[in-house]
């Protein structure tokens, strides 16, 4: 593994304040997606960001982040990889994560590669065919990073990637990426610990592709999406991780 499977830290965090300004649409007539459009005078032509979320899916924090990417000129789509079955913050400590991933909350709605890969592929297809997008940058937060990696190979449609505190990414998936990848990591993270960061660096060196790994002190797994914004250290790290992603896309996607 280049990062460990999701753990309890994947189900903790804080809901952020704000009013999302995007809208919910259907992808392939089946799956929900939240889309945020940039102002016409700032829009980057022919590119978009595919946001692959953590196990909280489409919720307040992911919507606000999508709106922020849109404010920086990127048409952004948050795809519901959980098929209407996200976890909520109040489920911390009550969910059997391995069981949830294999069966979902209802027992018949799995959240594993056979179930999620087609959803991500449909989102890529929709961006290209329905929105005329020629190049796709993708962000994968925690659980979503694995599914970014799985569609970040030649011919799959993702051109540039950004992970924040990735989980469940295999070494083979990371080695197979086909474009520039930036990673934001937390100092304290049992899912993406020091040895796996170093292993990921070794793998990325061998790809001979542009890569970046930024380490943020004073924060834990999940900080880039659901940190405590009343804590100055956490707030700064979250904001800088976002800036890292935008700078990466500005450099390699435009």
UniProtKB/TrEMBL annotation:
InterPro entries: AB_hydrolase_fold, Dienelactn_hydro. It comes from the Eukaryota. Pfam families: DLH. SUPFAM superfamilies: alpha/beta-Hydrolases. One of its GO terms (molecular function) is hydrolase activity. Residues 32-253 form the Dienelactone hydrolase domain. This is Dienelactone hydrolase domain-containing protein. It comes from Thyridium curvatum.
